[in-house]
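Think of the structure tokens as a kind of shorthand, similar to the way a musician reads notation: each symbol stands for something richer, in this case the local conformation of the backbone. In the example below we present two proteins back to back. Begin with the first one, reading the sequence and then the tokens, and try to describe in your own words what changes along the chain.
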Amino acid sequence: SKHVIKNIPWTTAKNFTVEIGQQQIEELISTWDIHESWLHHSEFLEEEELKDSKRYHYRACWGLPTRRKPIPRATASVYFVIVISKLKPDTAPVEVFYRLESSRLIRRPEQCEFREKWLHDIIENKVLCAERL
């Protein structure tokens, strides 16, 4: 059986607002297979005007708080960009990309399933780095 990548129906360019963008990122995150012990918050960072598109930048910051350590030793960020094309009709859905803070690889939610391991790896590397200092 082929594994289905979960995605959500993205809003159209004409209906897009910064708030709807953030709600939809939360909706996407809710489809990810991540243990409930992970907590995150998301925020809008900035709007970027380009020749043929407008880009809206967001960040979701993840941590693994525990009873013994309610403030995690390290966090992992996932950066999202919602792109509104100036060349496509405004009835077209927005395009969405994301990347992990430790990576330059840009992923599309409809093409790549998010892996919890990525968050673990970022935090593990940060903790190891801090211990070396």
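Once you have a description of the first chain, move to the second and do the same.
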Amino acid sequence: QITFYEGKCFTGRKLDVCGSCSSFQDRGFLNRVNSICVQSGAWVCFDHPNFRGQQYVLEHGEYPDFYHWNGRSDHLGSCRPVGMHGQHYRIQIFEGSHFSGPSLELTDDCSFLQGQGWDKTCINALKVYGDGA
């Protein structure tokens, strides 16, 4: 679930969304969004209706004003959840550009790469396989 607020710091009229929303205006909400609260999942929000325009990926958390998620405008017109489902997925990270150098493959969430044996200081390329996100 994601909640959009017209005012900063979660004030003013609000719009609660639980799935894809192709037009905030069709739901009676103007396209001015000054704060956002993401209660669950990850979301892609768009400047314009019908999933058009600049995209912003927002993860779980609070965004008290548009500078925390955009920085230039308080306009949003549509959103949809990021597909976080799938049974067959993996990611491969590479130290070098163009998928070169040492690599590591992951099939589960990993909050600390060094704990998986990755002792490199950077990642310059990655490949995502399967139906995960």
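Compare your description with these statements about the second chain. The chain has two domains: 2-82, 89-130.
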